[in-house]
Design a protein that fits this description.
The complex is a heterodimer of chains A (157) and B (84).
Chain A (H helix, E strand, L loop, with lengths): L10 H35 L6 H4 L1 H23 L8 H38 L3 H27 L2
Chain B lengths: L5 H35 L3 H30 L11
Helix pairs in contact in B: 1-2
The chains are: A mainly alpha (157), B mainly alpha (84).
Subcellular location (chain A): Membrane; Vacuole membrane
Organism (chain A): Asbolus verrucosus (Desert ironclad beetle)
Main location (chain A): membrane
Chain lengths: 157, 84
């Protein structure tokens, strides 16, 4: 197959940008979530160090957001080929998949960071808040999962 | 009730975090190369997608285990004895 209108030389550019966007934006969200809830943990642990195990949960959940991005970035990177075998359509689909998981991860990471910070500080004073914090964190986490589902669905087009 | 020392706490958190970080990656590549492409001979696209789905499922199982452990066993240490 040769370079033509449907297989332009810049076709893979979109796919590469999709893979990069997936991991960059999910990592941004995960980094914000880790840092924001990390300050909460550091402030809380001074008085209640026995709660560290419980308060690590927002950090772990923020890390999972980055794994979502990693999964999609690896999938897209595995699908990128030479321009002659890579139609422009596939590039667009890969770009869409990467942006879907990337920006959902960014949003979910922001939510996890803010909820984790306030939740961890609150749990130190009222331990019954823990269940509520976990529930809110799970609802923040599924925002990233929705992006992952849409991205996988787009990738299989 | 088991006394929680800083070392045992670190060990627990470290083991769970290692599982959460490495289990999905191992699952993805092991399923893709040995199970789907090796054993079943599935195509590249579908084996990729199913490996990714299974990796995410394994990830959530590991996260659920961690939350379970933290909920039922975390923070059970006695507060330090008050010293006058």
């Amino acid at each position: 197959m040769a370079i033509d209108e449907e297989h332009p030389v810049y076709g893979p550019f979109f796919g590469v940008m999709g893979a990069a966007a997936a991991i960059i934006f999910s990592s941004l969200g995960a980094a914000y979530g880790t840092a924001k809830s990390g300050t909460g943990i550091a402030a809380m642990s001074v008085m209640r160090p026995e709660l560290i195990m419980k308060s690590i949960i927002p950090v772990v959940m923020a890390g999972i957001i980055a794994i979502y991005g990693l999964v999609i970035a690896v999938l897209i990177a595995g699908g990128i080929e030479q321009p002659t075998n890579y139609p422009l359509y596939k590039g667009f689909v890969h770009l869409g998949a990467g942006l879907a998981v990337g920006f959902s991860g960014l949003a979910a990471g922001f939510a996890i960071g803010i909820v984790g910070d306030a939740g961890v500080r609150g749990t130190a004073q009222q331990p019954r808040l823990f269940v509520g914090m976990i529930l809110i964190l799970i609802f923040a986490e599924v925002l990233g999962l929705y992006g992952l589902i849409v991205a996988i669905y787009l990738y299989t087009k | 009730m088991i006394e929680t020392t800083p070392y045992s706490l670190f060990k627990t958190v470290f083991i769970y975090c290692a599982i959460i970080l490495f289990a999905p990656i191992t699952t993805f590549f092991a399923l893709k190369y040995f199970f789907f492409e090796g054993l079943l001979g599935t195509g590249s696209l579908s084996s990729n997608v199913w490996s990714a789905v299974m990796a995410v499922v394994v990830l959530h199982i590991a996260l659920g285990l961690f939350i379970y452990k933290a909920y039922f066993e975390g923070g059970k240490t006695k507060p330090d004895e008050k010293v006058d």
